[in-house]
Amino acid sequence: MTYPRTFSHIGLSVTDLDAAVEFYTETLGWYVIMPPTEIVSDDSAIGVMCNDVFGEGWGRFRIAHLSTGDKIGVEIFEFKNAERPADNFEYWKTGVFHFCIQDPDVEGLAKRIVANGGKQRMPVREYFPGEKPYRMVYCEDPFGNIIEIYSHSYELTYSAGAYQGEND
Question: At the topology level of CATH, where does 7-80 sit?
């Protein structure tokens, strides 16, 4: 049967797990469910699961589990030999290229991201200038992961017809 499933968690890769946990807890207010932990390739249940996911030879990695205010999980991974590309925004390639959070103070949160080592990738924009207060901006964490910020809920923003009339 088809029905709308709920979102459980996302997984992020970073080059410095401790710095990432600090960034996300201090900047976005997410809280730690499981502090940074090392996982090794062995015959434990988690070792076998990781072999299934990553293939043989992954060796070891560190992971922490955080949660958002609406109980969405965030797994943060630090793999050995982790690399931070110069530009992680390859939106034209298949795969997830950003995640979005909601905060009515879009401008304030964007400034907080920048103050904590991230960057703002564009000016804050309005979906309905002069009509509705729906705003958005793309930012980036200190590790190159793209964070979009919405001022209002996804449903409210798009049920209002965010793109209507632009290409008529």
Answer: 2,3-Dihydroxybiphenyl 1,2-Dioxygenase; domain 1 (3.10.180)
Asked if 26 and 32 touch (Cβ cutoff 8 Å), the reply is no
Q: Which two tokens stand for residue 37?
A: 């932990």
State the Cα–Cα distance between residues 102 and 72, nearest whole angstrom. Answer: 13
When pLDDT is cut at 50, 70 and 90, the band that residue 167 belongs to is: low
Cα 62 → chain centroid = 18
**Domain range summary for the chain, segments of one domain joined by +:** 7-80, 96-162
Angle at 69 between CA 66 and CA 72, to 5 degrees: 55
Cβ(134)–Cβ(128) below 8 Å: yes
pTM score, whole prediction: 0.90
